[in-house]
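stage 2 :: seqdesign
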């Protein structure tokens, strides 16, 4: 969705300040039958402005309704665009950098005029984990991620002794007045968006 968002007509009012796209996220940390973590299943819902723009001009058999097949080319663009940013998901497993493979099972759906991107980010190798520390954010802060209010993160198939904790350090509402000049020369070693990272910790 980064590529699609970059094409937005930013002449509209708030478009001169970061972020440009808002995402409400729910995620599942998935384990196999042996208690090994296998990956993360993300469900990211875009704001109404982006959802409306992204679906303009897409072919549809029924007006106002998009099938999964009709949205699949856009889902492909979304997934391809995120690769450069490691799918906005980074972390450590047992103190070592998490190694994720290419996303699988990805698709878009439109419900109540909002687009939601579903995809699985698998670990390259399933892993028995004593500690999992994840951060979800856009280093350029073009996209603002916020936890879903009700149940943002769940454990699926985790060993019974695993405990989940979430921490959100940033608040997207305070970012609406940020000037574009702050992002003219981003520092790759100190990404501005990191201070708005959503943090997830699992201890087993």
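stage 2 :: out
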């Amino acid at each position: 969705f980064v590529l699609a968002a970059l094409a937005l007509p930013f002449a509209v009012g708030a478009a001169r300040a970061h972020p440009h796209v808002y995402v409400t996220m729910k995620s599942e940390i998935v384990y196999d039958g042996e208690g090994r973590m296998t990956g993360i299943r993300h469900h990211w819902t875009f704001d109404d402005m982006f959802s409306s723009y992204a679906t303009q001009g897409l072919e549809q058999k029924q007006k106002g309704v998009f099938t999964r097949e009709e949205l699949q080319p856009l889902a492909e663009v979304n997934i391809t665009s995120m690769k450069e940013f490691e799918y906005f998901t980074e972390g450590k497993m047992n103190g070592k950098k998490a190694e994720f493979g290419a996303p699988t099972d990805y698709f878009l759906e439109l419900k109540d005029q909002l687009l939601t991107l579903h995809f699985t980010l698998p670990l390259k190798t399933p892993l028995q984990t004593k500690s999992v520390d994840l951060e979800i954010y856009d280093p350029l802060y073009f996209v603002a991620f916020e936890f879903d209010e009700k149940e943002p993160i769940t454990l699926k198939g985790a060993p019974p002794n695993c405990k989940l904790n979430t921490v959100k350090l940033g608040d997207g509402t305070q970012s609406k007045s940020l000037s574009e000049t702050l992002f003219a020369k981003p520092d790759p070693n100190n990404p501005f968006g990191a201070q708005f990272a959503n943090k997830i910790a699992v201890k087993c």
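stage 3 :: structure notes
- The longest helix spans residues 68-82.
- The helical segments are 2-6, 48-55, 68-82.
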